[in-house]
Amino acid sequence: MVYPVADNPMVFLHTPNLPGAVFVLAGLFMVVRRGRDGLVMLFLALFAVGCAGWIASGLLPSVHPAHSAALAGLVYIFFSRGDSGEKLYTALMVLYAFLVAWTGIYKGVYSPGDAAAGMFAGIACSGLAYTLFAWVVKNIVHLNILKHPARG
Q: Rounded distance, CA 142 to CA 152, Å?
């Protein structure tokens, strides 16, 4: 299953510094596109990636697929229904997550099951981050606003 033409892109996609650069670019996109709300998205992405890393590092050898899937999951949640630029960005992030997993399989670092489990952990952590955020907004923020209405 080794194709010499694919060796260089596979090595590039699995370098240690690339996920950090992708995360920084994703964070910039979130903040530029959504302003102050983008900062909340960035915090949720940090939480989801940290959660995925914690789960994957303790149980699985596939930390990179977990990180990339957590980031792609949150991008999908927030940007998949946006304009064409946001949909393209979402598609690129999901493609990046799959390529990271495929690269690990190609290089023999992970088995397909490990890569799939890492991606599942990342997606689960992004869902958990969004669910916790929605719960806090609904049950704490909105209730406080209703209890203390603005006087005008």
A: 18
